[in-house]
């Protein structure tokens, strides 16, 4: 949850004093950071433990503003995997120094460091009643990209805002509604739901549907835990619901089987795969035995289809598991995608998962899985109506 302590009720100071020095936060700043946190925020406060985590373990840029040897403000920017996205998680300034330009200095230095780290888009959430902060962000080039109802502890709504730091062209993205997976193994069904809803706005989304689609498309077993969704199973689930579908695969035969050691489980995976392929042949599902290249996927997206693409989550979260995402747009620098997984355990929000910019070369590395470099995509189109 992004929060900002540039209060709209704080008067601007005429005595700004000496300018603050912006530097990386260090562990010895923790007492000052706790003091500022409790002085600046009435709700949604970070605990000492959370601040310690952000200082020592989070994948983040953590800066402080220092005056006279003391920290008087801070900003935390979370870095989203190997994408080009960063998010202002928190910005706090000592209330006694509000209006001295400290928040602006922190923001600009945070943007500079994020850009140096390869981040081309900065996002944030801000309270809708914080006119001062909203005004600052607009002044600095941020634009509104959404609104979240009752986002803060006291029920206040939040605005989502975004700024392009470098590279991106702010493309016209496909209007793909966002749906976050509710279980760790339902990324495929959540991604398929987003694609179907984009093509048919009347299509109703629910958790029951999320689980039903997973049951219809699961491989039953994976390396550990519940089985994930296979491309043929996802395609068949969409076709049953009246969509025009095709599957692109870089290899034939049972998928994800290489990561399973148990001979019995491998046999089950083969049986499920063979059953999917048999049904695919019966219903005339188009199977294209060629790797879904970035160029091909973006061409299909431009033609009105919604690609659901298999990636390796290692490029996002450091875990070597297959993961499904939805492509929503592209420009000359980035592919944009909806990621159904929101990493709440690492202070993530939907702002980190919607229209995520991924550099073209990074997407090419991301859109493959396993030692065999498996590439797979399910292409969803609106069903053509018969005439005559």
Detailed description of the structure:
The protein has 388 residues and is of the alpha+beta class. The chain has 2 domains: 162 residues, Gcn5-related N-acetyltransferase (GNAT) (Aminopeptidase), CATH 3.40.630.30; 195 residues, Alpha-Beta Complex (Cathepsin B, Chain A). Helices cover 31% and strands 24% of the residues. It is built from 11 helices and 15 strands. Strands 1, 2, 3, 4, 5, 6, 7 and 8 form an 8-stranded mixed sheet that branches. Helix 1 packs across helix 2, helix 5 crosses helix 6 and helix 6 crosses helix 7. The termini are far apart.
List the helices and strands and how they pair.
Blueprint: E1 3-4, E2 21-24, H1 30-40, H2 48-56, E3 60-67, E4 70-79, E5 85-93, H3 102-116, E6 121-127, H4 131-139, E7 143-148, E8 158-164, H5 187-199, H6 207-217, H7 231-240, E9 244-249, H8 263-283, E10 286-288, H9 294-302, E11 306-312, H10 314-317, E12 322-330, E13 334-338, E14 356-359, H11 360-366, E15 376-381
Parallel strand pairs: 1-5, 5-6, 9-10
Antiparallel strand pairs: 2-3, 3-4, 4-5, 6-8, 7-8, 9-15, 11-12, 11-15, 12-13, 13-14
Helix pairs in contact: 1-2, 5-6, 6-7
Largest sheet, in brief, is:
8 strands, mixed
What is the CATH architecture term of the largest domain? Alpha-Beta Complex
Number of strands: 15
Fraction of residues in H or I helices = 25-40%
What is the averaged pLDDT score?
90
Structural class: alpha+beta
């Amino acid at each position: 949850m992004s929060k900002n302590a540039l209060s709209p009720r704080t008067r601007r100071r005429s005595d700004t004093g000496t300018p603050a020095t912006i530097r990386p936060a260090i562990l010895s700043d923790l007492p000052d950071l706790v003091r500022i946190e409790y002085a600046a925020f009435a709700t949604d406060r970070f605990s000492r433990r959370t601040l310690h985590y952000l200082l020592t373990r989070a994948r983040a840029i953590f800066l402080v503003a220092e005056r006279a040897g003391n920290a008087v403000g801070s900003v935390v920017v979370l870095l989203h995997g190997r994408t080009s996205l960063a998010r202002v998680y928190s910005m706090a300034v000592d209330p006694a120094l509000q209006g001295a330009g400290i928040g602006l200095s922190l923001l600009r230095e945070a943007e500079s460091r994020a850009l140096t780290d390869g981040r081309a888009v900065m996002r944030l959430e801000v309270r809708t009643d914080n006119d001062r902060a909203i005004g600052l962000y607009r002044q600095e080039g941020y634009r509104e990209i959404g609104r979240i109802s009752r986002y803060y502890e006291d029920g206040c709504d939040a605005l989502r805002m975004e700024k392009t730091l470098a590279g991106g062209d702010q493309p016209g993205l496909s209007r793909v509604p966002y749906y976050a997976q509710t279980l760790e193994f339902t990324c495929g069904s959540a991604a398929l739901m987003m694609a179907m809803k984009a093509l048919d706005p009347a299509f109703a989304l629910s958790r029951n549907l999320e689980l039903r689609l997973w049951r219809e498309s699961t491989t039953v077993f994976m390396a550990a835990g519940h089985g994930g969704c296979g491309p043929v199973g996802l395609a068949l689930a969409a076709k049953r619901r009246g969509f025009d579908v095709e599957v692109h695969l870089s290899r034939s035969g049972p998928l994800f089987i290489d990561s399973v050691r148990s001979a019995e489980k491998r046999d089950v995976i083969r049986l499920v795969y063979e059953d999917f392929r048999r049904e695919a042949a019966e219903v005339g599902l188009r199977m294209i035995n060629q790797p879904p290249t970035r160029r091909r996927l973006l061409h299909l997206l431009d033609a009105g289809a919604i690609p659901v693409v298999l990636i390796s989550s290692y490029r996002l979260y450091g875990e070597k598991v297959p993961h499904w995402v939805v492509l929503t747009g592209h420009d000359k620098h980035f592919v944009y995608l909806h990621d159904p997984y929101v990493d709440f355990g690492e202070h993530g929000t939907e702002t980190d998962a919607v229209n995520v910019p991924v550099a073209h070369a990074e997407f090419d590395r991301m859109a493959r899985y396993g030692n065999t470099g498996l590439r797979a995509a399910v292409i969803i189109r609106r069903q053509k109506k018969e005439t005559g």
